[in-house]
Specification:
This protein has helices at about 5-10, 20-30, 55-60, 75-85, 100-110, 120-125, 130-150, 160-175, 235-255, 260-275; strands spanning about 15-20, 35-40, 45-50, 65-70, 90-95, 115, 185, 210-215, 215, 220, 225-230, 285-290, 295-300, 310-315, 320, 325-330, 330-335, 340. The protein is α+β, with helices and mostly antiparallel strands. The strands form seven sheets. A four-stranded mixed sheet has the order 1-2-3-4, sandwiched between helices.
């Protein structure tokens, strides 16, 4: 079933949903539009775009009518016409995607009161279907191919920036559409910074190198982290690495539809705490991802809501010892069939280059 059909079924008492942000438009119609809108009614749906996209949109979009703005028919006028011609007396919109002034302008354009419909799209986007997961997996395989090649290049004397550049180049080379996010590559003492920015820091023998990166395929994100050692690893480095890996395995074992995000996070966190590193694991076990790199729901402390069937979440515990080194290992999980399917195939055991 197409996403627009799913939205129509989920409207409930709402006559229509109107969205204007590119991510929500893409979810509805499967096509990227920078500046436009989508209106989904119970029986009909429309996408409004401009001359830059209209030909491609007409070929790509199904189950929705494609309208094009013109010199005398701007976006606001087309929205008003749709609502007036179809007798919509109210509509849902997404307050987390609109500023206060944007909400007011949109309400004026459609000419009817707008209601918070964030849960309609949020619930649907949280539950990935097979096509969405296939796109995420395709992106992940591209990233894994890039990593496999880059592992053969990492050596003392290379900089973090150079490693990041090699990853990005290869992800594009093998079919990626862009970065899911700016890649993180940190080495040595800088690997203790979970979101450190690649710099001119030179990799040395005995360093950990942490690489967190992903690419896009059909608009969907991949996300993975691998930490490798260069030359050799000390006993302390191995101990921390093994603890993070055990924590990840515990979180993966706990992850399933219906389990709370806090319970999944807690299963991994307990392993790290029991090993004496609890204060050095500051972020959550994982976040959802899809058309955006960070989506809801999350496997995090305080999330007492059951994780839904179909969610794709990251599994990324870490230990970060300031001034010394850090370790993070990250896979992606699809929650289904009473458990968690690991979508990541790259080896998780410690690699010493």
């Amino acid at each position: 079933m197409s996403h627009v059909k799913k939205i129509q079924q989920a409207l409930g008492a709402l006559p229509a949903l109107v969205v204007t942000d590119p991510v929500s438009i893409r979810y509805a119609c499967g096509f990227h539009i920078d500046d436009g809108a989508a209106v989904i009614g119970r029986d009909r749906a429309w996408v409004i775009t401009d001359s830059r996209y209209v030909e491609a949109a007409e070929k790509a979009i199904r189950d929705m009518e494609v309208l094009c703005v013109g010199k005398d028919r701007g976006l606001s006028r087309l929205l008003g016409e749709i609502f007036a011609q179809n007798g919509f007396e109210k509509a849902g919109a997404l307050p987390d995607r609109l500023s206060h002034s944007q909400w007011d302008r949109l309400e004026k354009a459609v000419g009817v009161p707008l209601a918070d419909a964030g849960s309609v799209l949020g619930d649907l986007r949280a539950r990935k279907d097979r096509d969405e997961v296939d796109a995420i997996v395709a992106a992940q395989r591209i990233a894994e191919k890039a990593l496999d090649e880059v592992l053969g290049l990492i050596r003392p004397g290379l900089t973090e920036k150079e490693v990041a550049a090699e990853l990005v180049y290869r992800m594009y080379k093998y079919g990626g559409e862009g970065n899911s996010f700016d890649p993180i590559v940190v080495a040595g003492a800088r690997s203790s910074m979970p979101h450190g920015v690649p710099g001119d820091n030179v990799i040395r023998d005995g360093d950990f190198v942490t690489m967190d990166f992903g690419t896009l395929y059909n608009g969907y994100c991949s996300d993975m982290t691998r930490t490798v050692a260069v030359g050799h690893a000390t006993d302390d480095m191995r101990r921390v690495y093994d603890t993070v890996l055990a924590a990840q395995q515990a979180g993966i074992a706990a992850a399933a539809p219906g389990v709370t995000g806090q319970a999944v996070d807690g299963a991994a966190r307990k392993v790290i705490e029991d090993a004496g590193y609890g204060e050095y694991f500051g972020h959550s076990f994982g976040h959802s991802l899809g058309l955006e790199i960070h989506e809801d729901p999350g496997a995090r402390p305080g999330n007492n809501e059951p994780l839904p069937e179909g969610a794709v979440i990251s599994a990324e515990p870490g230990i970060y010892l300031p001034g010394r080194f850090g370790v993070r290992i990250e896979d992606m999980l699809w929650l289904r069939d009473g458990g968690a399917e690991d979508l990541t195939k790259a080896p998780r055991e410690l690699i010493i280059l």
